[in-house]
Design brief:
mainly alpha, Rossmann fold, 2 domains, 26 helices
Length: 604
């Protein structure tokens, strides 16, 4: 297999661009970005416009060669794909899916039947003989092995998606770029390509789609609503004319589109070396790394604010950061440990009003499995505690999307975290009105969570530098402080099921505190569901054991207490929260997943 990628370009409707204006524009754009031009790139540019007008010889559709990965390999393949998507997104910027307009989408469907030029597209979508002819013509140009950069414009993007699973087995698609694609419209769901590509195939490195709001063919939106594992980018056209805005030449004039193709062909342009710490450099503990992540998130939120809200938020953040870093450094000094430079550089003297508020640097890549707990804690914890400032949900969502992109998780992960947390809150709320303004303003009460679990959470935080460090850190920062809140909130599923169930069932634990714990666990499972990650059977186990303990407590008190006793009402409210969570998990297969894991572990 050659290591040099081939550029495969699939044109849209029309005459197939016989003079290859797209190539000249792309070559110029690459040069402007300091990439090599296309002179030394092997190009495959099949012309198939005539094949969309009639059939020369009837052929069967080429088979789908690439199958879904087996159950054992699928999680690792998906994680590697997500890492590559994160790298390209971090290079190009944050995704924009677009919202679309129903009227435009309807118009796109109508043009298939009434615009002469779109007859070619209709033929491909409805005539299997013509479709087979086009696919075979393209496949005849492609070698049996090697690396391919696949670029599809307009109808060519639909053909490219249809072709993806039919490529030779030893072909690796090192980059898939679609421009001006109508593939998000139901009329273009050829041969159920949405279902066939419900997961990224193993031979695909990454897929990004570019759309612009002047291009009506895209229905003013991207494709990730149909293929949630890929990424959309909005580009702005220089032409108000929708026809010119849709052209391949116009898309390839955009630096970000050319950057993506250049990256796929040549790799990164960056020649900068990543600085490495020497062996004597002290690395932050996991507690400290969590603190840095939270501070980075707070700073990213502040960047999305303005006016008095921004000033107040920065004032609070200034005090939180100064006290937090001072507490960490004092603790390290008491232990005879040198503070990591990433911690020391964030210190500031509150006594000096002119002292600059240092901005934490972007973090390094975090595996998605390890990011779930801290990210869920970030969205539902007040990271500038003890200050309470109502921040609109929008800036928080943007900030978390930026943070997740910086950490190699793609910005869509941040959006999914918020979605999971909100869905969990809605499920437990039942018919009650959900106050999203209040939900997004302040986090769950950490002190209440600690009380609800009888202190078990403090001892259960996994992976942290020992219980002694954790306990001392919480004493320094306060259980209601930022680090204490994130650690406790992010460690719920690490607590032993029986011990946590006993603490939650206790009459000293309020129904509101229990609901907070259950909500966090449920959000974790919903997020894993959204991201197609293996579910955590410990969540089901903890919730079922908690239900048993709570029911047992109810039966013990119900026998002698007044029917409408406040204590019984509290227990009934607890049961309602648990039952709603378990009902959701049952309906979505979590119970079966847990049982399967048990039996699977028993062997033959």
């Amino acid at each position: 297999m050659t290591t040099k990628p081939i550029l495969l370009f699939l044109h849209g409707v029309g005459d197939g661009d016989p003079t290859d204006k797209w190539k000249d524009r792309l070559s110029q754009s690459l040069s402007e970005l300091s990439y090599p031009a296309l002179e030394n790139v092997d190009l495959i540019v099949p012309k198939f416009a005539h094949a969309l007008r009639g059939v020369d010889e009837t052929e069967k559709l080429p088979p789908r060669v690439h199958k879904r990965p087996n159950r054992t390999d699928a999680p690792q393949i998906r994680r590697e794909f997500e890492s590559r998507m994160a790298a390209i997104e971090f290079k190009l910027g944050r995704q924009d899916r677009g919202k679309g307009f129903p009227g435009i989408a309807t118009g796109v469907g109508l043009t298939l039947n009434y615009v002469p030029l779109m007859v070619q597209a209709l033929n491909y979508l409805k005539n299997d003989a013509m479709r087979a002819q086009v696919l075979h013509r393209i496949l005849s140009k492609i070698p049996s092995s090697g690396k391919v950069v696949l670029v599809g414009h307009s109808l060519g993007s639909v053909i490219a998606a249809d072709l993806l699973l039919r490529l030779p087995e030893d072909i690796e698609v090192v980059g898939f770029i679609t421009i001006g694609s109508p593939l998000g419209h139901s009329s273009f769901n050829v041969d159920k390509v949405w279902d066939n590509l419900s997961e990224p195939p193993a031979h695909l490195s990454w897929w990004i789609n570019f759309w612009n709001p002047t291009d009506l063919v895209t229905s003013v939106r991207g494709l990730s609503s149909r293929f949630p594992w890929m990424t959309d980018f909005k580009v702005v056209s220089n032409h108000p004319d929708p026809k010119k805005a849709h052209s391949a030449v116009e898309y390839l004039s955009s630096p970000v589109v050319s950057e993506a193709i250049g990256y796929a062909l040549y790799g990164s342009r960056s020649k900068e070396l990543v600085s490495r710490h020497s062996d004597v450099e002290v690395q932050p503990t996991e507690t400290e790394a969590l603190a840095i992540m939270a501070l980075r998130y707070a700073h990213l939120i502040s960047m999305e604010l303005d006016g008095d809200l921004k000033n107040r938020y920065l004032g609070a953040l200034r005090q939180v950061q100064a006290n937090l870093i001072d507490g960490i450094q004092r603790w390290n000094a008491e232990q005879g440990r040198t503070s990591a430079s990433s911690i020391a550089r964030l210190a500031l003297d509150l006594a000096d009003p002119t002292a600059e508020l240092p901005l934490p640097r972007p973090g390094t890549h975090v595996p998605i499995d390890l990011a779930i707990d801290p990210f869920l804690a970030l969205v539902s914890e007040n990271i500038i505690r003890p200050f309470e400032i109502t921040v609109p949900l929008g800036p928080k969502q943007i900030a978390l999307a930026n943070l997740s992109a910086e950490l190699g998780l793609t910005s869509s992960f941040g959006a999914d975290v918020f979605d999971a947390a909100k869905r969990a809150h809605e499920i437990l709320a039942g018919q009650k009105m959900v106050n999203w303004k209040r939900w997004s303003a302040v986090g769950l009460g950490t002190a209440a969570l600690v009380a609800a679990t009888g202190g078990l959470i403090l001892a259960a935080a996994p992976g942290l530098a020992g219980a002694a460090l954790l306990t001392s850190a919480l004493a320094s920062f306060g259980p209601g402080g930022m680090v204490g809140g994130l650690i406790t909130a992010g460690s719920l599923a690490g607590v032993g099921g029986g011990g946590l169930a006993f603490g939650l069932a206790s009459s000293t634990t309020s129904a509101a505190d229990l609901e907070s714990v259950v909500e966090r666990m449920l959000a974790k499972e919903i997020l894993r569901e959204i991201r197609h990650l293996p579910l955590d059977p410990a969540v089901w186990q903890i919730l079922t054991e908690t239900e048993i303990q709570v029911r047992r407590e109810y039966e013990r008190l119900d026998e002698f207490s007044d029917t409408n006793a406040p204590g019984l009402r509290e227990i009934r409210n607890k049961l309602t929260s648990i039952e709603r969570a378990l009902e959701y998990l049952r309906k979505n297969g979590h119970e079966l997943s847990f049982e399967f894991d048990i039996h699977d572990g028993l062997g033959d």
